């Protein structure tokens, strides 16, 4: 959602000078000055005569009613409390992961028993996992807030529209930060447990390739799962920051690109289910991940069936011109697909068949093990 276009008052200094002479009667009755007209380029055109030849004048860096225009800097300032909450939850997750692995209650201890034998030696890996889980949680919150903004909003929701939009932006920024921290800590863990005979720069380069270059990680399930996570990171950064340059790329282009944020979330969930060793097996931890997808699918379907923008609503097929029917068919198919996904999620939760393993996979090798 974008803030309403800015309006500016006429600039009196740019008005043509009045020639000397006796005053003459006005051509029209006094009344309110016409409002400025917003232009797509982020400038405003004053009323006729406000600038010579109607030349556009730069819009002020203020929003409606004189409020400051939303910028990346202002949202970074506003995101501190949200980020602090994310760090507290990450610390709690770190303690939970550590305790579960130390007590061998986590399936990670089955897949990588050397970590349970010496949990203190792998604290960076546990911290990376904790940041990964909090990143997934914050991505979930961001998507839910976005769907509430663009679809029907419950009347019982205590947040106003502007507050909901600002929270959506700050959680988005913190999601990017949490994903980046997850990846950086993963690389730091690889450096820490690299071969002692390697020079530090060789170990750093190997860790960079395995963590940030698609195809660089070549052991176990990470061959697929890590490129999926990398795709989520590399899409989240531009898609999350495009909001702050939407006046340059155009609001329509921004709205089209912003819809792909849901792809980042899907990739994050897929990465978690593939590589999160604590959710490899059947159990409440894995079931919780699936359960969290129900609200997303339900809100997404509600957003498609009743979007906030009138132009995005699906008209009756009989009222659709012939040339627009292929687009109508594609949009209808999208709604049917999301409804089918919602039905599959319900079936998975009811049946308990969520793809969890009954035993470790054949290849449990890990570059974290340098024994």
UniProtKB/TrEMBL annotation:
Topology with respect to the bilayer: Multi-pass membrane protein
Subcellular location: Membrane
Comp. bias intervals (Pro residues): 17-33
Bias (Low complexity) ranges: 34-46
Coiled-coil stretches noted in the UniProt entry, renumbered to this chain: none
Domain Ferric oxidoreductase residues, every copy: 138-268
Keywords, in A-Z order: Membrane, Transmembrane, Transmembrane helix
Ranges for region Disordered: 1-70
Spans traversing the lipid bilayer: 80-101, 122-149, 169-187, 224-244, 256-275, 287-305, 332-351
One GO cellular component term noted in the UniProt record for this chain: membrane
Identification of the protein by name: Ferric oxidoreductase domain-containing protein
């Amino acid at each position: 959602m974008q803030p309403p276009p800015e309006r500016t008052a006429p600039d009196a200094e740019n008005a043509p000078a009045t020639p000397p002479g006796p005053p003459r009667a006005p051509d029209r009755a006094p009344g309110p000055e016409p409002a400025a007209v917003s232009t797509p380029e982020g400038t405003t055109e004053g009323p006729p005569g406000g600038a010579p030849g109607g030349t556009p004048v730069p819009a002020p860096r203020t929003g409606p009613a004189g409020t400051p225009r939303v910028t990346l800097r202002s949202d970074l300032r506003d995101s501190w409390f949200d980020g602090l909450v994310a760090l507290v939850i990450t610390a709690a997750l770190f303690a939970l992961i550590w305790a579960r692995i130390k007590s061998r209650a986590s399936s990670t201890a089955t897949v990588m028993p050397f970590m349970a034998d010496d949990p203190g030696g792998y604290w960076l890996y546990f911290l990376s996992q904790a940041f990964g889980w909090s990143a997934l949680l914050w991505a979930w919150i961001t998507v839910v807030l976005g769907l509430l903004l663009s679809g029907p909003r419950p009347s019982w929701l205590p947040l106003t529209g502007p507050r909901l939009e600002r929270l959506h932006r700050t959680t988005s920024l913190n999601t990017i930060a949490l994903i980046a921290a997850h990846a950086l800590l993963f690389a730091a863990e690889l450096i820490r447990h690299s071969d002692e005979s390697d020079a530090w720069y060789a170990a750093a380069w190997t860790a960079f390739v395995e963590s940030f270059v698609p195809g660089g990680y070549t052991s176990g399930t990470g061959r697929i799962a890590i490129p999926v996570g990398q795709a989520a990171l590399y899409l989240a950064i531009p898609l999350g920051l495009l909001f702050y340059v939407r006046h340059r790329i155009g609001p329509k282009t921004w709205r089209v690109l912003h819809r792909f944020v849901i792809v980042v979330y899907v990739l994050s969930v897929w990465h978690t289910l593939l590589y999160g060793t604590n959710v490899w097996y059947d159990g409440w931890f894995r079931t919780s991940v699936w359960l969290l997808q129900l609200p997303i699918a339900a809100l997404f379907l509600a957003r498609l069936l009743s979007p906030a923008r009138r132009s995005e609503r699906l008209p009756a097929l009989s009222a659709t011109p012939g040339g627009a029917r292929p687009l109508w068919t594609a949009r209808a198919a999208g709604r049917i697909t999301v409804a089918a996904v919602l039905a599959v999620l319900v079936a998975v939760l009811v049946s308990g068949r969520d793809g969890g393993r009954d035993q470790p996979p054949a290849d449990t090798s890990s570059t974290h093990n340098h024994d």
